[in-house]
Sequence to fold (207 residues):
Amino acid sequence: MPGKPSSSQPKQDDPTSKKTTSGAGRGRYITGELKYSPLKGQLLARFAQVVVNALTMSQERTFAIIKPDVVLLKKQGEVIQRILDEGFEILAMRQLQLSRTQVEGFYAVHKEQPFFPRLCDFITSGPVVILALEREDAVAHWRKVLGATDPLEAAPGTIRKLYGVRLGRNAGHGSDSVDNGLVECAYFFQGSDLLPPKRALDPAPSS
Fold:
C-alpha cells in the first residue's frame, strides 16, 4: 500500500479552483471574469471626455443692456433671439425704465468723463432690457457679438452695426471683465432673481 502523502509535500494547484493567492494569479482571474465589449469601451471613453469638458469649461457670467434706441425700434426681440442663438443662457431678464439715480450709480466709474451727463440722459430716455447671461467665455463672447463701441467701426452682423446709430447711441452694453460681470449683475438682480443655469432654458411644465 502506498503510504500517506507527507503533510510537507507541496500541493498541486487545482485547475478548476477560482481561488488565487499570487498577484499574477489574481490578475489572470479578474481578467478572465470581466466581460469587456467595444460598446462599453466607447461609453467609458465618452464619459471621460464629458468629465474633462466639464472641468475645463470656463463658464462666466456677464451683464447686458439692450438700450433705448433698440427698444424704440421694437427690435429687442431680435436681439434676445440673437443672444440665445449665440449659446447664452438667460439667467434673468427684465424690461424697465431706469431712474437717473440707478444709471448714475451704474455708470459711476465714468462720472468725471465729459460724456457722462449725455450717457445718463440717453439711458433714461426710454425703456431698456437688462439681462444676466451665462456661457463659456461669456464676457469676451458678448462683447464680440456687440461689436466695437462706435457703430460706425463695428464689424458687419454685430448688434451695434445692425441697430446702433452713433457713439452715443450704440444699442447695447456688455461687461468689460469677469469681475464686473458679477458686480453689474448683482447691481440689478438679487441672487434669488437668477435661474439656476441648467434650468434657465427648460420648457415650462405642461398643464
